[in-house]
Amino acid sequence: MQVMPDQLRRLATALLESRGVEPRAAALQADLLVEAELRGLPSHGLQRLPLLLSRLEKGLADGRAQGAFKWSRQAFLDADGERGLGPVVLMNAMQRLRKSLPETGIAVAAIRNANHIGMLAYYAETAARQGLIAIVMSTSEALVHPFGGTKAMLGTNPVAIGIPAGERPFVLDLATSVVSMGKIRNHALRGVPIPPGWAVDAHGEPTEDPLAAQTGAIAPFGDAKGYGLGLAIELLVAALAGSALSPDVHGTLDDDHPANKGDLLVLIDPAAGKGAAPALTAYLDSLRLSRPLDPARPVAIPGDGARSRRAAAMAEGITLPQPLFEQLMALEAA
What are 197-212's pLDDT values in tens digits? Predict the structure, then answer.
């Protein structure tokens, strides 16, 4: 069914406030969930809201926590999320890093003890539109098998990079797995098989059943390349944030444990370097205008597709599974 974005923002914000989330934090969390829907990433959208509400009700998430921050080095911010909402803690960290950039040029925040931060592109594009370069990384429960293996031992470990480039900044956001577990859960929610090659079941056998995949393991993207990149992010985040390694991570997919994964934010002021934004913008535009393999599909830059889908959804509404919309409405009435 089609639902207009503003209606969903109001609904999500009201549901969060009714669970004790302070208004500004509720608006931020709701905006991130709806933005994921607008950009065609329902795996990180409103299907995550019922779980988050349950975590708030159980005290596993604190809707009023802002995070505790300490500069352990001139440009290294140590962040304890205090069980706060992931977007709130990360945006508070970004604000502190931004203030340090005139002196340091680059700054890093390592975050632990915060809830799921959602779609990483949200933060990368926010920074890029402020004229800053951002690199965002996160870890998760063990959901991905190593290259050549069958057991889930790594997180999906996504990374996002935002670089200023005029009105259409470069925004890359990808998991180091073939797909996120949220997308597999979205297939299960819609009763749709997953494509071949996405996952194996609990016995290590290839499966197209999204329910069987949830008890098995997701494949790394690009075989050894995705495995290597995912492992590098796993080690980097854990080393800096002091967070758990994926086999011991809980709290992004359940409502039984505190969230103990880690997040990493790197913020860079391009003015500290020698590059020029107009040259980057012109280069990206030249890529867009280069000859495509298929004339009906022009060459795109990471971030272009999401912005195009967002524009369409703003006009036509967000396609939301009927059972999910009914669940959210029932939660509002409860």
Answer: 999 999 999 999 999 9
